[in-house]
Predict the structure of 3'-5' exonuclease.
Amino acid sequence: MEPVPSLRIIKYVLYDHFSMKRKQQKHVSKELQNEILNEMLSMKTTLSLKQSFNETTFTVFDLETTGFFPKLGDEIVSIGAIKLNVNEIKFPEHFYEVVSPIGEVPEYIYSLTGLAKEQVENGCSFQEAFLKFLQFSKETVLVAHPASFDVHFLQVMAKRWGLPKYNPLFIDSYFLANFLQPKLNNKLDRLVSYFEIDQKERHHALNDAQMTAEVFTKLLEMLEEKDVLNFEDYLKIRGKKKGKLVVV
């Protein structure tokens, strides 16, 4: 993660935070807020931590954002996700939403993501996109590369919109790759090449989610060889790596 620019912190604290808050208040839908709250209250999964990964359904997802720092006002511009079960590797269910942020979108983000200004301006609100994502990912384990960015970003956005703490079950595929191949570069591009996965156009949320899903299936095969077979085993290796057992 790149360091937070000092001038940006000062600008956000003195001006951007209050400006965005005022704009956001005009976009809040109480009806959507209530639907999201109901969805979050029903989030408790029936998944057993001992359930085999082979029997688990995952939602592998990716965010495209206006920057790296959600706590400094960066926002989501698109969400892509693939529903994955290793017994259904054809990826039959997918999710994609373009999100219209409250603040300005830097010009380079349009070039990076391939999104047109008109697409973003006509995108749905964060509330709409988040509600649909919650419904799509219900009763699944989230996967992202790295989850430390994507899940954290969603958590900060949920808090910013006045929602309860978003605390889904999730797996960090970047952590898994580093656990399995500690001496290698485990960024998504290299893993796609390493596993000979078809390279799709990068920084499109759905494309990145699909490539991550294909990488994740390869990592699950490697985990089997190390007897990491379920979410409980995953928590153990996370704990050993961090020096303590933690639910991530």
The chain has one domain: 31-44+53-242. The chain is about 50% helix and 15% strand. The domain at 31-44+53-242 is CATH 3.30.420.10 (Nucleotidyltransferase; domain 5).
